[in-house]
Design goal:
Length: 288
């Protein structure tokens, strides 16, 4: 194995024809043969031991982690959140809630550390506020994500005494590529630090853009999807796989990225979102 395949998809909780959508999600994920799958809007009922994550898990992905974002019913432990399915063992995982300046449904960040044959791969899953007018809230959320990610990475290095592969950040960002929140993640805009308030920057490779993907063809919330068309929103790319720049060995280099899970299965689209897939270089390209 010289590369790792990452897939992200918002599974749209149980909305629409769930059983038919589940069949499409399972078939599509099996065909993609991803190493790590990042999921959003995953429902879990603790009192009944029921989880959509279990419904999507397979022999390909025996390892999983879940982070509660929004508690829908505290008495039954009915929650919605982010999740990671992995072919590789998950040796560490952490979670935290994101800033919630509008004081509405809460959002979360999940951190996992996957043990690949070429080293420890950090994979973070998130899902930002969705409302069109809340770019300022999403800006607070991405600044917080980067600060928290750096803390978790530092602690993992200290605990494990190991070098980490370039971190992957994936999910539903509910923001277009030219928004301030996405430009910040791509190194084109500065934001105030969550704590001190001074401006700071960040940089990730946007895998789809890095690999030359066409923006219109890459729309992940699209009127060509019958589930999405029903709410009459504009075509836009809002789901992403980001990765830190390649290390000195070339590991983490985006090799290929494409829109996926974008065709109906037995007449039904798997979700109201389309997914994104990316292959990242995993093996060292050179000796240093």
């Amino acid at each position: 194995m010289d590369h790792v395949r990452i897939v992200t998809i918002n599974i749209w909780n149980r909305s629409g024809p769930w059983e038919s959508r589940l069949a499409g999600l399972r078939a599509g994920l099996a065909e993609l043969n991803a190493d790590v799958v990042v999921l959003q809007e995953v429902l879990r009922l603790e009192s009944g031991g029921i989880s959509q994550l279990d419904a999507l898990a397979s022999d390909l992905h025996p390892h999983q982690a879940y982070a509660t974002a929004w508690t829908l019913d505290s008495t039954t432990g009915f929650t919605m959140g982010n999740a990671v399915l992995s072919r590789f063992p998950i040796v560490e995982h952490e979670q935290t809630l994101l800033p919630n300046p509008m004081q509405h449904e809460t959002r979360a960040l999940l951190y996992t550390l996957c043990e690949t044959p070429h080293g420890l791969l950090p994979v973070l899953a998130t899902h930002l506020d969705w409302q069109f007018e809340l770019s300022h809230a999403r800006c607070q959320q991405v600044a917080f994500i980067v600060e928290k990610m750096e803390l978790w990475l530092s602690l993992s290095r200290q605990r494990l005494g190991a070098e980490l592969l370039p971190a992957v950040l994936a999910g539903d960002f509910n923001a277009e590529p030219d928004s301030d929140e996405i430009r910040y993640l791509r190194g084109r805009h500065a934001l105030p630090s969550p704590g001190a308030g001074g401006l700071h920057g960040a940089y990730f490779n946007d895998c789809y853009a890095f690999c030359g993907g066409d923006e219109r063809a890459g729309a992940t919330f699209s009127r060509t999807n019958t589930h999405a068309a029903a709410i009459h929103e504009p075509e836009r790319r809002i789901d992403y796989i980001f990765v830190r720049p390649p290390d000195r060995h070339g590991r983490g280099m985006p090799l290929r990225a494409w829109r996926c899970l974008d065709q109906p299965f037995q007449g039904v689209f798997p979700s109201d979102h389309f997914g994104v897939a990316a292959d990242l270089q995993l093996a060292s390209l050179k000796r240093v």
